[in-house]
Amino acid sequence: MGIFPEYFYRFLPYETTYQAYKPGKVVFYLQLLLFSGLAFFLLLPLMKRTLTISLDTDWLWRVALNRIVRFVTDSLAWAGATAEAAMAALLTRLGAFNRRHLGASPEQNQRGVFARTWQIGTTALWIAILLFVYVFAYFIS
Questions:
Q1: Whose CA, among 12, 24, 36, 62, lies 20 to 30 Å from 54?
Q2: Where do the structural domains in the chain lie, given as residue ranges?
Q3: Model confidence pLDDT, tens digit, residues 60-105
């Protein structure tokens, strides 16, 4: 509104008689401004800097949350490396099992146990045993 508030008062929907710059109001606000400035400069020696550490709430996300995230990521990295090593060992064992029982071994010229052709009697016996186990399990449940 600046120093000419009367121009803005014309846009109001009703008539007003308010005067913004009466001498009493101007003196009052100047006194308020000058005495608050005087109080500031008189109390300035009391506002010396002290060498202290103040912990604000921003410490929670600057330091604590950073440490928590670092701990979680380090733990997940360790768990991932451990799981990767365990999976590699398991796949090595499964590969050895596969070569020994299912396929031809490169060190031996023989086929694995499950890769050989079986006689029909052995196959029929295993089919009967598995069918009996299935029917028995179905009957119990």
A1: 36
A2: 6-46, 78-140
A3: 888 889 999 999 999 999 999 999 999 999 999 998 888 777 776 5
